[in-house]
Amino acid sequence: MTENARQATTPRLHIDWTRCDGRGLCSELLPQLLSRDDWGYPRSRDNSRETAVPGPVVKYARRAVARCPRLALTLVEDA
Asked: SUPFAM superfamilies, from UniProt (predicted)?
């Protein structure tokens, strides 16, 4: 894959619902992408299953993935 093709790929944020316990840290770290439902679980603001992470927000998404206490977040980047 060329460098231009790699840059054109938009990463997505995946939430593993079997691991998540609704602490809400991710929605605090990524308010641009996530909100919380009535029980405190994260939900994407665009209501998608895996929300797209725009370029300027990728570094914050990586930080949220690293800080998730239940390891429920993954940044999916297609190769």
From this structure: 4Fe-4S ferredoxins
Give me the domains of the chain, ranges plus CATH numbers: 3-76 (3.30.70.20)
Residues 61, 42, 48, 78, CA torsion sign: positive
* Residue type for position 41: Y
Secondary structure element (H or E) that encloses residue 14, with its range: strand 12-15
CB-based contact 42:26 (threshold 8 Å): yes
The Cα 64–Cα 15 span in angstroms is 11
pLDDT (tens digit, 9 = 90+) per residue, 18-70?
Answer: 999 999 999 999 999 999 999 999 999 999 999 999 999 999 999 999 999 99
- Burial of residue 60 (CB within 10 Å: 0-12, 13-18, 19+) is middle
> What pTM was estimated for this model as a whole?
0.84
